[in-house]
Amino acid sequence: MITLDDADFHPRDPSDMSWTETTFLPFAVPEEGIFGNCYVLARPNLGVCLSSVIVSRGICLHTYEIDFTDPQMHLKCPEKFSDFTLENGLSVKALGGPQNYDLRYENQLGACSFDLKFRGLHRPFDPHDPAENPMVFERATGAEDARIGREWANGHFECKGHITGSLTLYGETYQVDCYEGMDHSWGPRKELGTRAVTWISINFGEELAIHLAVPMRIEKGTVLYDPVQFGFVCENGEVHGVVSAEVQANRVHLQPVGNRITVTDIRGKSFEFLGTAVGGHPWHSFNPCHVCYQTTMRYTWNGCIGFGEFGDIFGLDYLARHMSRSAPWRRVQTGGIV
C-alpha cells in the first residue's frame, strides 16, 4: 500500500549509483490538439537529475514539428522529492502526500510556462500489493523479460486525477482542464535501451479512468501488444485491478494514430474503447536511450467522450535490433545486402 511518505525519496543503498526516482505528469488541451508533459528523473546518490518538458500541437511525426522541448540534464538533485524547484524553472510540490500536486514551470527563454494543479481521484495504486493488483504473482516472472526490464518490480505508484490551471505557449495562454494520470517510480535502474512497453491512460472524468502497462514486441516491422503486465480501473472513485486486456493500434511510421482497447477487471466487468489521435509526438528527450511515441487519444465509450495518453516506449537498442537495416528480417528481404 502506498503511504504519505511515498511522495518523497525512498530509503536506499547509498553505494548504488543506479538508484533512480522519477515523477511524470502528462496534460492536454484536447480541443486545441495540445499535448504536453513534464518529467523528472533523479539520481540522489549521484546528486544529479534530468528534467524534460515538452508541448506539441496536433500530430507531429518528426521532432522538428514539435512546438516546444526543454530537456535539461545534469541538474542538481533536490534534497526532497516532495517539494523542489529545479534550475530549469520547474517546481513540483506534493500536498500532504502522493495524491495531490502543484506544478509550475517557467522556461528560461520565455517560450513556455504553466501553472497546474493535480488533484487525485483515489488513493494511489500500488502494482506490488496483491490486495490491489490481482496479477502481481501471475506476472512475477515478467522481470526476466528484457523488454520489460526489472524496473517494474521496484517501487511504483499510479494515480488518476483532475488537472486544472493554465499553459502559456509562445505568448498564447490556454486553460487546462483535463483528467490524466501521474506516477512516481523508484529503485535501481540501469539505462539500457532494451525495453518495449506501452503506457496507457484512458479518462472519462470522475466516472471512469483506466491505466494499463502492456509489453510490446516488433515482428517483421509490425508492433504487437502482449498480455497486460498490470493495470486498474477507477470507477466513481473505487479502484479495481485489471485481470486482462487486449490492445491493437494503427500508426503512421511508429506514431500511433488510432487504437482499440478492451479491459476486464477483477469484478468481471469489461470495457471497450476506440481511440483516435488528436495530438502527439516522438518524445526523445526524457531519456537518452529511449524514445516514447506519445499520443493523446480521443476515446469513445458508452456514448461518452474521453481522452488520455497512449505512449509506446521503445529502447533505442530494441528498435535497432528490430527496425534498422541490420535487423535479421530486413537482411533476409534484401538477400543479406544492407
Overall, the morphology is globular
Instruction: Identify the CATH homologous superfamily.
Output: AttH-like domain
Number of discrete domains: 1
Mean pLDDT: 93
Helix and strand pattern: EEEEEEEEEEEEEEEEEEEHH
Strand content: over 45%
CATH topology: AttH-like fold
Structure annotation, total helices: 2
How would a textbook summarize the main sheet? 10 strands, antiparallel
Radius of gyration: 19 Å
In the sheet with the most strands, the strands line up as 4-3-2-1-10-9-8-7-6-5
Name of the top-level CATH class: Mainly Beta
Work out the number of β strands: 19
Pfam families: DUF7064 (PF23212), DUF7065 (PF23213)
Key structural traits:
338 residues; mainly beta; DUF7064; 19 strands; AttH-like fold; single chain; DUF7065
What is the gist of this entry?
Helices cover 4% and strands 57% of the residues. By secondary structure, it is mainly beta.
3D structure, described in words:
The chain is mainly beta and 338 residues long. It has one domain: AttH-like domain (AttH-like fold, Beta Barrel), CATH 2.40.370.10. Helices cover 4% and strands 57% of the residues. The protein contains two helices and 19 strands. It has helices at residues 316-323, 328-333; strands at 19-29, 34-43, 48-57, 68-76, 83-85, 90-94, 100-106, 112-120, 155-169, 172-188, 196-204, 208-219, 222-225, 230-235, 238-252, 255-265, 270-283, 290-301, 304-315. The strands form two sheets. The protein has a ten-stranded antiparallel sheet with strand order 4-3-2-1-10-9-8-7-6-5, with no helix packed on it. Strand 16 and strand 17 (270-283) form a beta hairpin. The termini are far apart. 44% of the residues are buried. The mean pLDDT is 93.
